[in-house]
Write a structure and sequence with these properties.
The protein is mainly α and 133 residues long. The protein is 78% helix and 0% strand.
Amino acid sequence: MHPGEEAAAGAPGKPRGWVLWWVHLVIVAMLIGGGIAIVEGTPPDDGVNFAIVFTALPLLVLGLPWSLLQVLSTYAVEDFLFAHLPGPVAYVGLYVLADGPALLNVVVHAVVLIALRRRRRQRVQHLGEIRDA
């Protein structure tokens, strides 16, 4: 059996790509939901909510390389948003900048899986044509 055919057939004991994608999606969704619940549910008294760190840091890591700008210039992006946008819009911008890169990586993960599936099907179809000839 060709090594690619074994991967396409789903070797026992190895996780399938879509299972990992679902795990990736659930983790990102839970972190985003938890972050929104923390920010909206526990308004800080002193203006700083340190509890958001527990969801924001993993989201920034899951959003790499797209979140690299925000990681390297933490306050520059926030200062720009609050200086140029009204308050509620700036907060939406922060949510998008914090959560968007991780969601983008979930989408990229799905696109890669779809492309790999198409390539495997074409390769298996091509191998079948070679055997039939």
